[in-house]
Prior knowledge:
By secondary structure, the protein is mainly β. The chain is 0% helix and 44% strand.
Amino acid sequence: MVQLFIKLETGETSEWTIIELQGDLECTSTKDSLDGKFIGDLHFTKQGEPLFIVGHHILSGKFVRLDKPLIVLVKENRPDVEMETAPFKEEKTDSKTQFSVTAVIRRKIVFRTRPRPIVTNLPKSS
């Protein structure tokens, strides 16, 4: 049986939100990946509706509550600490890995509509 040790800090756990995009994001160069790259700007209207600007396109989204919350875990190695299992306090384990809860994800922003082009009025040259 595998036992995972999850540690929840006593302080306030931050809440994160997932951004879900429909379709594909492509780089102009075929060998580049999107890791660590700037994709676009996330803005909110006065009514709280999310807008995502990618290049010369704008996407409208909405907040969706997740059926089951997700947690974000960080793996920690504890070489000098002997951990106790919760149900069996007298039984020691040799597991030296534990996970700390970093954040809770309870909702996501979904962008399902097709991107609309951003059109500006340019002055006509005479």
